[in-house]
């Protein structure tokens, strides 16, 4: 089978991919005829054939041990992947039929019309399986194409949204079948391209940067496949004082990260799915952290990682909850602390606390009075609700007492000013404002002992905000 064509410009590949198969068949038939390529004299060809025949005879006379040693060794495969040379994925056609295909990331452009690679997602809305590997690799190809995503913008979020939407609709959606919602698929592809676009720019700049070269000299070193105007704008951005300071700060922060991992390029979402398929149990964040910071022989990557891993193991052994559930209070959360707003440790690209910890947060705001009257909640929830209601009423009482004391103090102060000045100065007039309507309503509700109980729909809307 001929090697698929590697397109340099993906904008033109869409139109040329449909005719690539016919060209490949013609070239393969031509290559099978040695006379087409062999234009040496007949005597030279005869000598070459005799030499090849002698070498073939000598090879056949090798001992079985030598023959076994001469055979190529099989490539080392990662757990969960069938081959390191290609990806084995499910491809669905326009009729809904699913077949197994062996593809590489650049073969995605050579899929027939209607064929799409299936990408599965787990319970945390992260892609898994070998389809994720093809998708991530193809996202890298697209993100590195400066004709689709120019490099002269300051950051990925500065690119117009139309750039990504057009790329997703034209190249991604027509070649991949996502077994999830479109919003989840777009979110992962967007984050993946963002990461690869930034890494591409850094690699290009680090390749040509020299502290002894001037700005003009670096601008003249335009990388291949990058338009000159984009490169000049990007170099201008890198030489700005604010950018230089930010790079120095990032380099200093990078030195503080002393704990490395052995996870490689495989995302933890795929690793988590493979561990689940192997053991039959869903691994928690603690198991994922141990798996990526401990070597195959059981040793740790370094002493700092050893100290943290031992703390995580101790927390997992002492835990009274199910550590397989992702929670802010699991072993990793207890040892490493609160998560950053933009990521969740050990869950891979795109995971955020608002989504990962959504199922484990206590949602008391969803409780309403009707659910208790109907007896649909347990006695424990009823007791907690009564405690919250009692605490709320107590807070209202304390607030009323404080407001009454404040009103008495202000009246006394007002009488004192009138006694001294005869009238209230304009500078102090705004201080003696009567109680606002909202405060009076709150006092009336507190005095009557009533409490506004929100419905579950209202509480969900407020929580989402």
Q: How does this structure look, described?
A:
This protein is mainly α. The chain has four domains: 10-68, no CATH class; 87-255, no CATH class; 281-360, no CATH class; 366-464, no CATH class. It is built from 21 helices and five strands. It has helices at 10-16, 20-31, 34-37, 42-60, 64-70, 130-143, 161-172, 182-208, 215-220, 228-238, 241-255, 268-279, 285-292, 303-318, 331-336, 353-356, 369-373, 379-421, 426-429, 437-448, 456-464; strands at residues 87-92, 98-103, 116-121, 127-128, 176-178. α6 packs across α8 and α18 crosses α20. It is extended, with a radius of gyration of 34 Å. It starts with 9 loop residues before the first helix and ends with a helix. This is Transposase, Ptta/En/Spm, plant. InterPro entries: Probable_transposase_24. Residues 9-31, 456-465 have a biased composition (Polar residues).
Reported for the largest beta sheet, the result is: 5 strands, mixed
Radius of gyration: 34 Å
* Overall shape: extended
For the record, the count of structural domains works out to 4
Number of strands: 5
The total count of helices amounts to: 21
Low-confidence stretches at least 5 residues in length (pLDDT < 50)? 14-49, 55-78, 360-377, 435-465
Portion in strands: under 5%
Distance between the termini: 56 Å
Order of helices and strands: HHHHHEEEEHHEHHHHHHHHHHHHHH
Structural class: mainly alpha
What is the share of helical residues? 40-55%
Summed over residues and divided by their number, the pLDDT gives a mean of 75
């Amino acid at each position: 089978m001929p090697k698929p064509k590697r397109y340099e410009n993906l904008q033109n590949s869409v139109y040329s991919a449909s005719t690539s198969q016919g060209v490949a068949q013609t070239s393969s038939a031509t290559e099978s005829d040695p006379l087409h390529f062999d234009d040496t004299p007949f005597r030279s060809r005869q000598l070459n054939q005799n030499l090849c025949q002698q070498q073939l005879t000598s090879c056949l006379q090798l001992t079985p041990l030598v023959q076994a040693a001469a055979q190529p060794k099989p490539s080392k495969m990662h757990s969960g992947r069938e081959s390191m040379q290609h990806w084995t994925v499910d491809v669905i056609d326009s009729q809904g039929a699913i077949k197994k295909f062996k593809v590489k990331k650049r073969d995605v452009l050579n899929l027939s019309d209607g064929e799409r690679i299936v990408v599965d997602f787990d319970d945390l809305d992260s892609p898994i399986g070998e389809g994720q590997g093809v998708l991530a690799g193809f996202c890298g190809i697209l993100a590195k194409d400066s004709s689709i995503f120019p490099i002269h913008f300051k950051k990925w979020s500065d690119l117009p949204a139309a750039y990504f939407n057009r790329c997703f609709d034209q190249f991604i959606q027509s070649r991949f079948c996502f077994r999830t919602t479109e919003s989840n698929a777009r979110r992962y592809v967007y984050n993946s391209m963002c990461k690869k676009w930034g890494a591409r720019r850094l690699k290009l700049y680090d390749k040509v940067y020299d502290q002894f070269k001037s700005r003009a000299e670096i601008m003249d070193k335009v990388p291949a496949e990058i338009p000159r105007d984009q490169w000049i704008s990007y170099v201008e951005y890198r030489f700005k004082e604010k950018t230089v300071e930010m790079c120095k700060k990032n380099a200093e922060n990078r030195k503080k990260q002393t704990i490395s991992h052995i996870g490689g390029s495989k995302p933890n979402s795929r690793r988590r799915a493979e561990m689940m398929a192997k053991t039959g149990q869903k691994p928690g964040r603690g198991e994922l952290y141990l798996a990526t910071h401990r070597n195959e022989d059981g040793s740790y990557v370094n002493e700092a990682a050893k100290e943290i891993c031992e703390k995580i193991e101790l927390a997992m052994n002492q835990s009274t909850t199910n550590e397989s559930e992702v929670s802010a209070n699991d072993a990793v959360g207890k040892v490493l602390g609160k998560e950053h707003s933009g990521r969740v440790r050990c869950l891979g690209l795109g995971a955020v606390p608002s989504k990962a910890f959504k199922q484990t947060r206590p949602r008391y705001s969803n409780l309403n009075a009707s659910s208790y009257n109907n007896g649909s909640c347990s006695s424990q929830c009823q007791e907690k609700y009564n405690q919250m209601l009692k605490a709320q009423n107590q807070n209202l009482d304390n607030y009323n007492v404080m407001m009454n004391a404040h009103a008495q103090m202000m009246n006394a102060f007002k009488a004192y000013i009138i006694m001294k000045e005869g009238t209230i100065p304009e500078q102090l007039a705004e201080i003696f404002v009567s109680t606002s309507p909202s405060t009076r309503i709150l006092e009336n509700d507190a005095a009557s002992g009533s409490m506004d109980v929100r419905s579950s729909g209202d509480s969900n809307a407020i929580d989402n905000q």
